[in-house]
Design brief:
Elements lengths: L1 H18 L14 E5 L2 H4 L10 H9 L2 E4 L7 H8 L2 H9 L2 E4 L3 H19 L23 H13 L2 H15 L6 E5 L16 H32 L3 E4 L1 H5 L3 H4 E2 L4 E4 L1 H14 L16 H15 L8 H7 L9 H15 L24 H5 L8 H5 L8 H5 L8 H5 L8 H5 L8 H5 L8
Parallel strand pairs: 1-2, 1-3, 3-4, 4-5
Antiparallel strand pairs: 6-7
Helix pairs in contact: 1-13, 3-12, 4-8, 6-7, 7-9, 8-9, 13-15
Length: 452
Amino acid sequence: MMKKYMRFLTAVSAVAMILNPCALLPVHAEHVQKIVILGDSIATGKSLAKDEKSYVDLLEEYTNIHVQNFAQDTYTTGDILSCMQTAQVQQALAQADVICINAGEHDIMDGFLLTADSFMKEFAFEKFTDVFQANLPDYGFTDENDLIPYANEMASAIRANQKTAGENILLINQELEKYPDAKIIYQTAYNMLDTLDFIDTLSAKRKSAYNGILNPAKTTLKTYLNDNITQFAQEHESCILIDTCTGFSGNAWQYTNLYDLELNPTASGHAWIADTIIKEANLSRTGDVNADTSVNASDAANVLQHAANIGAGGNGLFNDDELKGADVDGDGTVNSRDASQILIYAAWEGSGKHYFFLKADESELADPDPTQPTDTELADPDPTQPTDTELADPDPTQPTDTELADPDPTQPTDTELADPDPTQPTDTELADPDPTQPTDTELADPDPVQPV
């Protein structure tokens, strides 16, 4: 198997060099050793399943950069501000190459979540969105107009802390200015209500009720959080804006847990955040050896060239940072196994799926994705079961039922030998076509023993 891999990877290397000769020239990525995270439950990964990863986890996986995370589930802007003023966090921020921050979601949306949850319990709705799809009389509503007061109540809850949130964002911005040597990655606050995947199917009154919650959230998030965050990014060259609000707009049903009334992103939402941060901040991915912001066959070719150089007694082609990015399995060496994982990664990412590099001590390295069939399984999914061919002919050395009935279709059967063509009269029938009728002789002399 390894010989096959090596032949395949050598071919890939050759193609990569032909298509892009410069791909094998060393390109030095920006030197980033430490990322500090500030934020709330979005950064902690709350609401994710055990096998799902937050954007912070993905950043560490994708970049192989040390991440220090100070986020807490319930943090508001006031909590984040207080956190930034502690000695431990200030020391970490002073040593950070990158500071990644999100703030304000809980200030604006917690009131809505509590009000909506109370509303659901009052009417025994299983999901928040049920109220916009249910047969309302079943839940005690007279008609759709009864939804308006509840929508207004939820809108008021969204506005409750807007002023405090806006003031705290400005103070957080002042704290960030104390770290001019760090790159600031600032996320805008997304609107978890924007929007339902079935919004266009709602009646006019139900849509109006939903928009009575959606639009106040849009306005509040923009005015008191996102405008201030965007202005800070525009005024500071070292700040990179990650516009999560725009990125999630129209896709809340996919990127957030709106239907379960959870503020936090889904795994897809976290993947969007991580991918956007890496792209916008130009962070080199693990496996992106040539630092062109993508992991592809050219990187695999680089790895093979480096390994070949080492094998020939050379010092290799990579500097320390490039070695760190090329050693995707973390075994301390850069070889064909790293190249093979880079190709697998590129194939998965190209198909819209996420692949995580496996470490050398992980048994799954022999099978990168246990949820996918191996080559052997593809050839024969279940060796204990007969194949389609075997089902059609269980034992090719034995005659089939058809062959037993007629061993050689090119030879006449016994029936055909006895009567080659049943549509033609037999010799007997030609001699006496109908034995029940008198013959010509019998007609001439009906009884030969009697005198004529």
